[in-house]
Amino acid sequence: MANGIVASLLLLFLFAASAFAGSDVPFIVAQKKATLKRIKPDVERISVSIDIYNQGTTTVYDVSLNDVSWPQDSFVVSGNLSVSWEKLDAGSVLSHSYELEAKEKGVFQGSPALITYRIPTQAALLEAYSTPLLPLDILAVRPAESKLNLVHANCEY
At CA 30, angle to CA 103 and CA 129, rounded to 5? Predict the structure, then answer.
């Protein structure tokens, strides 16, 4: 009896998996990256880039990116935090970049960016989220490292 139930569940799972594998669906993956660059001792720029990948088998339309995780009282924004594209073909990538300048020192963790898109078979917009950022220690005191110390530390004797 138990073997019959397990076999039935296994067949149901295989049927559902094969039906899903045969359909045309988008699969949106978005990666958000940030790098810190010290301009002056009291000025640090954050370069943010977001890559949106369509790993699915169908084109998506009306793609919009919205990244509102940067408070205006803490950052000066250079560039657009929201952008739209007409479409993203299957297997393709879209990229967007902008820069921020920190107004204050501290640790900041950026939340995921929101991506909305539409597929031809549905009227409603679908949503995807980018990866979040790891905590950024903005304007942190970092010890100056000598290039000779770095070479010495990486050499084997």
Answer: 75
Cα(74)–Cα(108) distance, rounded to whole angstroms?
10
Strand bridging mode 126-129 / 114-118: antiparallel
Q: How far apart are CA 14 and CA 21, in angstroms?
A: 10
Alpha helices of 98-140 — where are they, by DSSP H?
Answer: none
The structure tokens listed for 32 are 């958000």
Find tokens 């898109």 and name the residue: 117
Give the helix ranges, DSSP H, for 1-115. Answer: 2-22
CATH 3.30.10.10 for the 22-136 domain, yes or no: no
User: Taken in order 131, 136, 142, 144, is the CA torsion positive or negative?
Assistant: positive
Domain boundaries, the chain: 22-136
Q: Which residue's entry shows tokens 């960016």? A: 113
Q: What is the pTM of this model?
A: 0.73
How many angstroms separate the CA atoms of 130 and 48, rounded?
12
- For the stretch 61-85, pLDDT in tens is 999 999 998 888 889 999 999 999 9
Residues in the chain: 157
CB neighbour class for 21 (10 Å; exposed up to 12, middle 13-18, buried from 19): exposed
Q: How far apart are CA 63 and CA 133, in angstroms?
A: 22
